[in-house]
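Check out one such.
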Amino acid sequence: SMKELKTRLEARNTETMDKIKIRLDTAVNEIAFGNKPGNFDAVVVNDNIDEAMDRIVHLFQEWFPDLDLYVRK
């Protein structure tokens, strides 16, 4: 969430409030872009590393069938 992003950026204490505002404004635009259908070929949610990796491998195998990918067993 934007609230969580703001909290994390402020907690780092590595940027001025002006820089944080710029980053937050940029994030709003990036999120809006990401939510528009057709802007990405696929979306992988990384809430479970094993499932996310399996999804990525599957996508690459689908997009590049001749690519020799290492697949975890």
The mean pLDDT is 91.
